[in-house]
Amino acid sequence: MLKPLGNLFIIAAPSGAGKSSLISALIEKHKASHPNQSDAVQLSVSHTTRAPRPGETNGVEYYFVSHDEFKAMIANDAFYEHAEVFGNYYGTSKAAIADKLSSGVDIFLDIDWQGARQVKKQNPDANSIFILPPSKDALLTRLINRGQDAHDVIEGRMAQAVSEMSHYNEFDYVILNDQFDEALQQLSSVVEAQRVTIDKQEMRYNTVLSELLKP
Taking CA atoms, which of 56, 72, 107, 208 is between 20 and 30 Å from 22? Predict the structure, then answer.
């Protein structure tokens, strides 16, 4: 079976490390520099059983399905990973990702280390990246400056962050998000490197290579 032209990137980090901001910035950077391929880098769209919120569109924020549909997908081994959160299910569809990858789209999975482990087990070709904060103090400051959580919630997030960060060595790449622009450049470099591996280039430039290598 031929490998897909697109790449699957797993991104994990403790809350407050800047993971979502880096992914968003990378996608916007790609759109600006590749206007004719603006959709070639995308964030994975998960399936969920929760109801759409005002302004949400099926297939954009999430694929919205019923509980019965979701459970049927579980039974059919349709997910890389799935979880129940506050009575609703969330999952990463194998088929939805495979469809994007086959068309040459690079997909980012924004998941935790446990989900990353599940995906990597089923798809060893996926590239896993862990984002670290520069220090515990910097992480605490970022969580406080959000102004979203009470003190006890922040303490809980910090304890969870230490536990999550202990799994950094399960990933292929580690990026320290101290200076945002530098971290973004490193993330961009990982993505660009995966695009020019020999198997991707052989598929992309098969006709050119055939012509170049003619006796």
Answer: 56
Would you say how long the chain is, in residues? 215
Distant-in-sequence, close-in-space partners of 196: CB < 8 Å, separation ≥ 6: none
Rounded to an integer, what distance in angstroms lies between the CA atom of residue 12 and that of residue 110?
Answer: 6
Looking at the chain, the whole-number percentage of residues with pLDDT higher than 90 is 76
The model's pTM: 0.87
Cα–Cα distance, 209 to 212 (Å, whole number): 5
Of 148, 154, 214, 200, which is closest to residue 7 (Cα–Cα)? 200
Domains, the chain, ordered by start = 8-44+105-212 (3.40.50.300)
Query: Could you tell me which residues come within 8 angstroms of residue 104 by beta carbon, excluding any fewer than 6 positions away?
Result: 4, 5, 6, 40
Q: Are 4 and 106 in contact (CB under 8 A)?
A: no
36 CB-near residues (< 8 Å, 6+ apart)? none
Q: Residue 110: helix, strand or coil by DSSP? A: strand
